[in-house]
């Protein structure tokens, strides 16, 4: 059809036209009522082109019920529309969240929750429009989306720029966006003309008229079913209800309907013009759907794309281009208005209030400026665009939710009861709105969202329209029920106070704030632009502040409306509350306060005296003249003063002398001082006004804590606290601490000894495992080689089945032994991971190819989704993990398929997923599957030890890869291995050619076999001889040098040899001799049962290939074939 460059040029040109129209509209003071009516067409998104045809294909004549709901609102609920528009103009409302929050006592919490619900519902809907743009590009371009993502990105960037320039140009929220309205009205005309032209082309060019489409459709069984489709009334009604709710609960529709409305005249014209527009958008929907089913292959073309697929299929470039631009206009108009409305909502109800809370210090910060608040709003709009674009790329493109439009709209409809019922019912309160909205959203998650997610990510069936409608009825009905019940039984306040929309104008002027006029004026100057703040200052000069300098209620009300129109209702209330003093200016009330304060003072004085008398500490008070003026009985008892000894006005020096005479001044710092010096020291300390704290041992053995504090007007107050019991406990704790430390030292010494014993035992175990592994593998290696060769020689005889069974049995024994050795090494900590960048496509593709034969033997198919992702891991261990998971999936899947693929979880992490449609795992058994020697289906003939998943878990823990399992009994299981993505990509070697070569592919080659095990010597010699090679055999270093010839092509060496020699040293000696003789180096393969990573690394560093025992003849042939190439 068109090249990608042509479409890019047309798209950018169309976007440029939109800019020009917006600039033209901004020059107009107020748009025509016709512009407002056409702008309401933002309700028709790209779904009008690419969704209605599917609905018509499913339900026949009962299509587009959502449009019917909107028409019913305009015809029969027009007074409600007028009332909401009037309230938005009256209260300077800037968003849907602002409207509902003001209704319920200016609740910031409800406004924030409404904003979050809108965010969750609108972002996927925005991404749906971006998906539509991608769909259109894939249909109309012949390059098959070669550059479609780039065009999509530029379209999104344009829409973001457009929304910021023409939607957030100024801080004033009440300013109408004339340029935006002209642009949306123009796009409404474009999408209407586009759909009409496609309909006319279908009916009068491809068919012989409008009714001929229905005549031809009646002749075909498939389309006859569409015309005679039995639609469910309940499904139809649910869509009609959603259409009604969309007029009030869709953020974009609320913005155009009510925020951009200038007067009631516009609404009167829109009452009939907008329904006519919707009818015109619907007239050709069913003919296009019927024509698509008649003319196109529905297996190739989706019913969603009929409006564009039909002209593309018949190569009519003009009609196809018209349909493309019409669909593009539907998508761009929706995205621009929805993102602008949502961005303003998020900024005013969430971001700006939080930011303002950090700025409301006693001295308002310099950053509290109009430009900064406007930048926050613009940044929020950009953020919404970015999130929607990310959702489009990473979620809706990879795992889209079916019927996402219905899902999003049914969530937004949960705000309808709080909005509409609360608009007329005075008893509706804040608790009812909060609980009903949250309960409706919760049931929406359970009945609608959760089943849709399961169908997109797992094997669950896609929810039917009937199931989704039932979920909507349950959530919406319970929402209304909770709203009514809570409103009736939770009476927060009288209705006139509870509903700000119902109070009179005189009551609106009353505010809960008491603000000094100068502070209010300073706040307005900080936040509001200069021209408006100057007008407010003139208003203050004309008003009369009260005697205490507080602003009048009418001035405060005007200030609140002014702030709300620029920063939203929540931000305005935060700023006014921050500078409010809540003081009154009534003189009689002030006198009443003084009287109450006097009574309170008298009461507090008596209460203080009673408290001092009964306080558990001793207290004494000295005035500035150093005389005793107050004390309590505890003080007298603590120091055993005689009765009537202490008197008010008694000089404190007499008390000190009496204490000294009884030996009470016996502190360590006083030992070298005379009694007179001790008394003078106390007096100087009190006069200096310094606080002090010290302990005294009383004559009766008690310990007294003495704390002295100076009084503000002079004098001193001293408290005396008997802490003898505390000191006793402290000493006991110190003794216990010392005893515990001694015990800890003793136990530490014992543990160190035990640790040394354990380390020695572990070392012995390690050596034993290495030796046992080597010795056990040798017989299996020889037996496997002999069995493989025997099977090849008698392959076409009657004994071939016996040898085939023998080979299989040995392979199973080899796998079980390898698994046991791996398990033991994991337990002993012998395996050390070597992490590097790994190409997942190379690893997974080879594994799937390897296991495809085994799967097909069970009647299964392994489906692999290719990927280009690289990760950080140990290739050998990761290969074993996925190998065990695929083996497990094949073992426990009786029919169906197995899926292996990679899912992006975040920017830096991915999941390797192995899914099967097998038997599944019961919830109570999920915690058991990783246990050692555990097999869930013991009654079945499942070969193995039950260690596969245990090894997966332990290797994953070693690699720090998380393992997750999800399963449903009878439906299947999914294992996920979470890995970190790699930024570096290493070159990948070409895949090996696995085609079998002729048996004598080593004809004329000389092989030096260095092996000390006789059985393996014989088996390997026979194998290489069958391949046409001449074999030289050695057992250790000396015999290898004796067998050396200068024409050796291949060296196969074991690691553990006779006479304590090792294969690597022997190979190095042979290679050194070849270098000395000036001959070419041989191909060297180290074949050993010792699989330690250190040995692999050592061999790799020397250029020696590694092949673990037991050796498979095919694996050895592939390795040598690769090396010889």
Structure description:
Residues 771-983 form the Histidine kinase domain. Pfam families: HATPase_c, HisKA, PAS_7, Response_reg. The modification 4-aspartylphosphate is found at residue 1054. Keywords: Coiled coil, Kinase, Membrane, Phosphoprotein, Transferase, Transmembrane, Transmembrane helix. Belongs to the sodium:solute symporter (SSF) (TC 2.A.21) family. By secondary structure, the protein is an alpha/beta fold. The protein has 6 domains: 4-358, no CATH class; 403-502, no CATH class; 504-585, no CATH class; 616-722, PAS domain (Beta-Lactamase); 831-981, Histidine kinase-like ATPase, C-terminal domain (Heat Shock Protein 90); 1006-1124, Rossmann fold (3-Layer(aba) Sandwich). Helix content is 62%, strand content 9%. It contains 42 helices and 18 strands. The strands form 3 sheets. Strands 7, 8, 9, 10, 11, 12 and 13 form a 7-stranded mixed beta sheet that branches. The chain has a 6-stranded antiparallel beta sheet with strand order 3-2-1-6-5-4. A hairpin with a 4-residue loop joins strand 1 and strand 2 (627-631). Helix 8 (108-140) packs antiparallel against helix 18 and helix 26 runs antiparallel to helix 27 (530-542). It is flat, with a radius of gyration of 43 Å. The two termini are 47 Å apart.
């Amino acid at each position: 059809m068109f090249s990608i460059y042509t479409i890019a040029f047309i798209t950018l040109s169309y976007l440029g036209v939109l800019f020009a129209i917006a600039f033209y509209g901004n020059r107009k003071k107020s748009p025509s009522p016709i512009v407002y009516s056409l702008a309401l067409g933002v309700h028709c998104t790209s779904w009008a082109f690419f969704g209605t045809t599917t609905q018509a294909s499913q339900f026949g004549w009962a299509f587009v019920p959502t449009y019917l709901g909107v028409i019913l609102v305009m015809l029969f609920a027009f007074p409600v529309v007028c009332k909401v528009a009037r309230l938005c103009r009256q209260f300077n409302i800037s968003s849907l969240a602002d409207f509902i929050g003001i209704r319920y006592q200016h609740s910031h919490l409800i406004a924030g929750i409404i904003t979050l619900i809108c965010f969750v519902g609108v972002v996927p809907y925005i991404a749906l429009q971006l998906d539509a743009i991608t769909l259109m590009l894939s249909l109309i371009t012949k390059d098959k989306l070669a550059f479609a993502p780039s065009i999509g990105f530029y379209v999104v960037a344009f829409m973001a720029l457009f929304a910021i320039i023409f939607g957030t140009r100024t801080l004033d929220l009440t300013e109408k966006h004339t340029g935006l309205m002209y642009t949306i009205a123009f796009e409404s005309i474009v999408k209407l003309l586009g759909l009409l032209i496609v309909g006319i082309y279908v009916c009068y060019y491809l068919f012989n008229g409008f009714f001929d489409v229905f005549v031809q459709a009646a002749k075909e069984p498939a389309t006859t079913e569409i015309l005679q489709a039995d639609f469910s009334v309940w499904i139809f009604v649910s869509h009609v209800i959603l259409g009604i709710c969309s007029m009030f609960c869709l953020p974009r529709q609320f913005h155009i309907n009510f925020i951009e409305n200038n007067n009631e005249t516009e609404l009167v014209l829109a009452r009939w013009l907008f329904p006519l527009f919707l009818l015109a958008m619907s007239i050709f929907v069913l003919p296009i759907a019927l024509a698509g089913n008649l003319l196109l292959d529905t297996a190739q073309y989706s019913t969603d794309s009929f409006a564009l697929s039909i002209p593309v299929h018949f190569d009519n470039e003009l009609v196809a281009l018209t349909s493309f631009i019409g669909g593009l206009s539907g998508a761009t108009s929706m995205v621009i208005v929805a993102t602008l409305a949502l961005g303003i909502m998020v900024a005013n109800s969430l971001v700006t209030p939080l930011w303002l809370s950090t700025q409301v210090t006693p001295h308002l910060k310099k950053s509290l400026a109009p430009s900064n608040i406007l930048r926050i709003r613009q940044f929020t709009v950009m953020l919404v665009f970015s999130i929607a674009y990310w959702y489009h790329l990473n979620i809706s493109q990879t795992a889209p939710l079916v019927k996402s439009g219905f899902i999003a709209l049914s969530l937004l409809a949960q705000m309808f009861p709080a909005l509409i019922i609360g608009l007329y019912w005075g008893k509706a309160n804040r608790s009812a709105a909060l609980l009903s909205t949250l309960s409706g959203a919760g049931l929406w998650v359970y009945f609608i969202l959760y089943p849709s997610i399961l169908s997109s990510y797992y094997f669950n069936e896609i929810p039917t329209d009937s199931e989704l409608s039932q979920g909507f009825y349950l959530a919406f009905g319970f929402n209304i029920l909770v709203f009514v019940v809570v409103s009736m039984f939770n009476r927060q306040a009288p209705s006139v106070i509870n509903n700000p929309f119902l109070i009179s104008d005189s009551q609106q002027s009353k505010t809960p704030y008491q603000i000094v006029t100068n502070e209010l004026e300073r706040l307005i100057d900080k936040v509001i632009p200069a021209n408006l703040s100057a007008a407010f200052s003139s208003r203050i000069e004309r008003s009369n502040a009260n005697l205490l300098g507080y602003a009048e209620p009418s001035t405060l009300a005007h200030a609140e409306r002014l702030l709300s129109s620029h920063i939203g209702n929540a931000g305005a209330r935060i700023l006014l509350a921050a500078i409010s003093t809540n003081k009154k200016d009534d003189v009689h009330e002030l006198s009443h306060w003084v009287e109450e304060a006097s009574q309170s003072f008298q009461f507090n004085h008596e209460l203080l005296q009673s408290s001092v008398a009964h306080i558990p500490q001793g207290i004494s008070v000295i005035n500035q003249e150093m005389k005793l003026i107050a004390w309590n009985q505890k003080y007298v008892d603590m120091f055993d003063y005689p009765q009537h000894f202490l008197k008010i006005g008694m000089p404190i020096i007499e008390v000190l002398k009496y204490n000294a005479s009884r030996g009470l001044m016996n502190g360590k710092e006083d030992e070298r001082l005379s009694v007179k010096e001790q008394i003078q020291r106390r007096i100087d300390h009190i006069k200096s006004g310094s606080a002090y704290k010290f302990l005294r041992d009383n004559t009766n053995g008690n310990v007294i804590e003495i704390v002295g504090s100076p009084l503000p007007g002079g004098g001193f107050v001293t408290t005396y606290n008997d802490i003898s019991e505390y000191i006793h406990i402290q000493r006991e704790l110190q003794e216990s601490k010392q005893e515990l430390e001694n015990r800890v030292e003793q136990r530490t010494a014992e543990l160190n000894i035990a640790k040394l014993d354990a380390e020695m035992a572990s070392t012995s175990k390690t050596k034993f495992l290495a030796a046992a592994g080597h010795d056990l593998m040798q017989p299996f290696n020889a037996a496997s080689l002999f069995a493989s060769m025997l099977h090849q020689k008698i392959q076409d005889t009657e004994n071939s089945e016996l040898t085939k069974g023998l080979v299989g049995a040995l392979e199973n024994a080899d796998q079980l032994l390898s698994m046991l050795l791996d398990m033991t090494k994991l337990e002993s900590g012998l395996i050390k991971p070597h992490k590097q960048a790994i190409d997942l496509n190379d690893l997974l593709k080879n594994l799937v190819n390897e296991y495809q034969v085994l799967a097909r033997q069970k009647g299964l198919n392994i489906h692999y989704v290719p990927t280009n992702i690289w990760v950080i891991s140990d290739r050998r261990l990761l290969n074993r993990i996925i190998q065990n998971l695929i083996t497990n999936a094949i073992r426990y899947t009786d029919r169906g398929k197995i899926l292996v693929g990679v899912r992006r979880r975040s920017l830096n992490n991915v999941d390797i997923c192995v899914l099967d449609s097998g038997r599944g795992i019961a919830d109570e058994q999920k915690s058991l599957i990783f246990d050692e020697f555990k097999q869930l289906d013991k009654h079945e003939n499942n070969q193995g030890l039950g260690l596969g998943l245990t090894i997966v878990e332990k290797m994953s823990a070693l690699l720090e890869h998380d393992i997750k399992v999800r399963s449903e009994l009878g439906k299947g299981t999914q294992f996920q291995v979470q890995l970190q993505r790699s930024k570096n990509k290493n070159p990948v070697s070409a895949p090996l050619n696995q085609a079998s070569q002729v048996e004598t592919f080593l004809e004329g080659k000389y092989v030096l076999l260095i092996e000390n095990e006789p059985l393996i010597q014989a088996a390997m010699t026979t194998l290489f001889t069958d391949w046409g090679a001449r074999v030289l055999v050695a057992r250790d270093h000396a015999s290898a040098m004796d067998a050396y010839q200068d024409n050796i092509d291949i060296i196969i060496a074991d690691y553990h040899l006779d006479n304590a020699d090792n294969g690597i040293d022997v190979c190095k000696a042979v290679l050194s001799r070849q270098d000395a003789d000036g001959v070419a180096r041989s191909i060297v393969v180290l074949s050993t049962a010792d699989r330690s990573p250190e040995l692999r690394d050592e061999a790799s560093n020397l250029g020696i290939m590694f092949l673990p025992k037991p050796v498979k003849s095919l694996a050895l042939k592939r390795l040598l074939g690769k090396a010889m190439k």
